[in-house]
C-alpha cells in the first residue's frame, strides 16, 4: 500500500463495520437492550465519531468510565442515556445533574451523597447500583444489599438499574460464571422489578441466562475477540498502515536493535518502519531469537518483527519477499484484514483491549462510513 504523500502512518476506522457489529450483537441479545461501552476513547477509535455511528445504528444507552467521557458522548449524541462506571466523584453531583449523567454507584458513601442531592433538590435523579459478585473491584459488597435497599426504601427511590460484572466471561465454561450468576440473582431478589445488567461482550455471547434486561458490549463492537477458544465473529473496525522508511541489508552474525537481543542467522533484507512504542506498538511485540514477536503484512506476506521495538522505529525481516522488496514510502499493515488486533495481542502476550487502547500514535485518522447502513 502506498501511503498518502509518504507522510506518516494512516489509521482507518470503519464506522460501518462498527455499526454492523452493534446490530449483530443486538440480534443475539434480542429481548434485552443493547448498550455500547465507549470508554477509553471508544477503545482507541474516537469517542465522538464512534458514539455517533453507534447511535445511528440504534444504540441509545452508553457506558463510559469518567464524567469527561460522558460529556464527550453527550456533546456528540444529545439524547443518549449515559452511565458513568467510575460512579460519583465526591462533590461532583451538580455536574452529573447538569450533564444528565447517571453515576453507577458502588459504595455507601456514593449512595449517601447522591441521595442527599436528591433530597436537596427534591428530585429522584437516576443512577445505577453496582454490586461486586466476585471480581473484587468497584461495587457494593453483597452483604450491603439489604442496607442499600433499606436506605432507598426510606426515600421512595428506585435505581434505573442494578448491575454487576463478570470476571471470567471470556472462558464460558468457567465455574465462576455460574457462581456470579447465582450471586447476582440473590442481589436482584432484593430489588424486585428493577432492570438488571450483567453481561459484557463475552457474557452476551455466553448465553441468554446472562442477558437480563440490558447487555453491555465493548470489545466486540470494535472487532476484538471477546471469547477465548472460538473464532471471532466480529468484523474488524481498525486498519493501520505505517511507513517503510528504508530497506537495508544485514549480515549473518550481526545484531538488530537495542540490547542486541536478536542476531541474524543469515544474510537478510530488513525494512525499517517509522513506528514504535510511542505510537502504541508495544515493546512486548519485539522479536528475539528464542521468542518470536509480532508480524506485519507487506506485499502479500507476513514479515516478522526482529529486535527490540524502540520509541520511533521497528525492524522487520523482509528476506522472504525475495526480489519483490518494498520501497520507502510504502505502507506496512500493522492491523487490518491480514493482521488482526488479536494476532498482535497474542504475539504480545496480552489482549486485544490493550492493542486497541494504545492507538494514540503519530498517524493520521481516517473515518470510513457511518452508522446509517441498510439493515
From TrEMBL:
The lineage of its organism: Bacteria, Pseudomonadati, Pseudomonadota, Alphaproteobacteria, Hyphomicrobiales. Its EC number is 5.1.1.1. GO terms for biological process: D-alanine biosynthetic process. Residues 237-368 form the Alanine racemase C-terminal domain. Substrate binds at residues 137, 311. Catalyzes the interconversion of L-alanine and D-alanine. May also act on other amino acids. One of its GO terms (cellular component) is cytosol. It comes from the Bacteria. InterPro entries: Ala_racemase, Ala_racemase/Decarboxylase_C, Ala_racemase_C, Ala_racemase_N, PLP-binding_barrel. This is Alanine racemase. The active site is at residues 39, 258. Belongs to the alanine racemase family. Pathway: Amino-acid biosynthesis; D-alanine biosynthesis; D-alanine from L-alanine: step 1/1. GO terms for molecular function: alanine racemase activity; pyridoxal phosphate binding. The modification N6-(pyridoxal phosphate)lysine is found at residue 39. It catalyses: L-alanine = D-alanine. It comes from Devosia marina. SUPFAM superfamilies: Alanine racemase C-terminal domain-like (SSF50621), PLP-binding barrel (SSF51419). Its cofactor is pyridoxal 5'-phosphate. Keywords: Isomerase, Pyridoxal phosphate.
